[in-house]
Amino acid sequence: MIWSRILLHRRLVALDLAAAAFCLAGLIGLIYHGARLDDYNQPIMVPHFLGIWLSTFMLFYGLQIPWTLHFTPHRGYKLSLASFIQYCIIAVVVFILIIGYYVGFRNDGGTWALFLFPCVLINTYLAWIRMRLAAPNSRISFTVRSKEDGTMDSSDSKPWFDHMVVPKTKAQRIVLLTAAGLNVFVLSIAFITVGLLLGGCLVQAQGYRSYPPRGRFVTVSGSKGQTTEVMIWCTGPLSATQPTIVFDIGGGGHSSSDLYGLQFALNDAGRRVCTYDYPGCGWSGPSIDVTQPQILDQLMAAINEPPPYALLGTMDGGPERILQYALKYPSNVAALIVLDYRPGPSEMEMYKTMRGYTDAQATHYAVSTIGGRFALGNLIRAIGVQWGLMSVFAPPSPDYVPINDQMEKLFLNIYNEKQWQTQMYILASQVAIPSTLFYYDIWSTTHTLDPNIPVLWFYANTNVTKQCIEYKYSAMDCTEAHRTAEIYLPYVQQAANMTANSHLFVYDDPSTFLSGGPYIPWTTQRILQHV
User: In a designed cystine with 231, which of 247, 283, 292, 449 is the match (CB 3.0 to 4.6 A)?
Assistant: First the structure.
């Protein structure tokens, strides 16, 4: 019986160390895969940092076995009891972690946590054994020696760990005590971090449960053959005389929730509005390509709304896609509406021109700038998103309209992992192919738009001088801000005069425009006047 217990304990140690080795291999693989993410035709929608966190913890817990049972044989009963209680709490937390991830439809995180759970249980059991061995009145004696005939020799009985390292000198005692203290500290940090991960998974679960998709899903394909599901949501009454207004809000850190206020205001005025979440954003499926000029073609074919449409584009790529659609299908378009967009040179093309960079200098600046954003975004993902702390960095805004839906907007745009994964994939692709950062958008190139299609352009008249004072710009930064405004304004005027019935509407406070506030009635009124 005693010998079988010894074998059981050693087998558990071997099993746990094997799990630790597996976790180490998985940890290296996850880090490598994350570093080479830009090499893939499409991002694998796995939260790399979640896997890295949990693999690190499993590796650490696995290495607790040789330390606990071999290198600290005289820890004392109270310390052993504290370790046992700590492992029990960790086991409970990890169990809740499993439930939280599966409830929140995060099968990836649930799988990692499910693998972590038995590893922690093994540690909990062995911590209990260690506590029993250290108890003052312990009757447990695990004998490791036997006679040649296989019987146990009680006269030569020793605890089974006594053959391991025992400090004999003062230096050895200092080293072991220091290592023991560090071990307890790291274990405590790991426990706190797992608790924060629990908070992060609960934020994800609560968000997906509290804010279900409002529309229906259609399947679209990317330029490389991949497919994904896109959510389309149409509200308001159908009209035989007025065109349906279709919002293209772009990708990155945005979703259809950005313009709920404008959508509902147009609905209240009796207008039909359809909006969608770009792949990788909001409720749509994973991103399938960095640029998808053909996505609007597929959505319009699947939307089941009679043409013509008034297409509204804003932010990341939306204005470009609606113009591409209008040039390709002019009879399907009644009007183009552009919100808060600056046509002309891309950000990096503008800096190249303004600063007189050579091609090599411009590329170096672009890669370093985008690489810095990529590093910051990954830091936010690893800590803010995975630990559920994004509400600290991005609290609710009183300017958003409707106020009751602002938490949905924050979750869909900022608090969830998928949105950040999409942004990091785009940045990684730009760093890998920096030439894609230098271009002039389609609004500033030569083309002929059907003269019957009016363009309504809403442009932010930024007070650069006020901006320089408010954000304490340096003299050089302030000069560049003024120069930037001068560069973009002619392109805006050109785009806003593309056809005879086009109009340019200027507003003075871009900080509150897209999120709602006082500009929603103003914007709604002007759209209704011309569409």
Answer: 283
pLDDT digits (tens, 9 = 90+) for 280-298: 888 988 776 645 557 888 8
Q: What letter does residue 171 receive in the DSSP assignment?
A: H
Is the alpha carbon torsion for 397, 398, 399, 404 positive or negative? positive
- Which distant-in-sequence residues (6+ apart) come within 8 Å of 34 by Cβ? 48, 49, 52
Collapsing DSSP to helix, strand or coil, 216 comes out as: strand
Q: What is the pLDDT of residue 513?
A: 57
DSSP assignment, residue 7?
H
Report CA-CA distances (Å) from 479 to 32, 303, 362, 422, 464: 42, 46, 19, 33, 9
For 329-353, what is each residue's pLDDT tens digit? 999 999 999 988 888 899 899 889 8
Q: Which amino acid is at 54?
A: L
Cα distances from 81 to residues 125, 128, 133, 178, 448, in angstroms, run 12, 8, 11, 20, 79
User: Do residues 273 and 234 lie in contact, with contact meaning Cβ atoms separated by under 8 Å?
Assistant: yes
Q: How far apart are CA 356 and CA 360, in angstroms?
A: 11
Distance, in Å, from the CA atom of 428 to the CA atom of 400, rounded to the nearest integer, reads: 31
**Cα(411)–Cα(218) distance, rounded to whole angstroms?**
22
Opening angle at CA 192, ends 188 and 195, nearest 5: 140
Low-confidence ranges of the chain (pLDDT < 50): 1-7, 37-46, 73-74, 140-165, 290
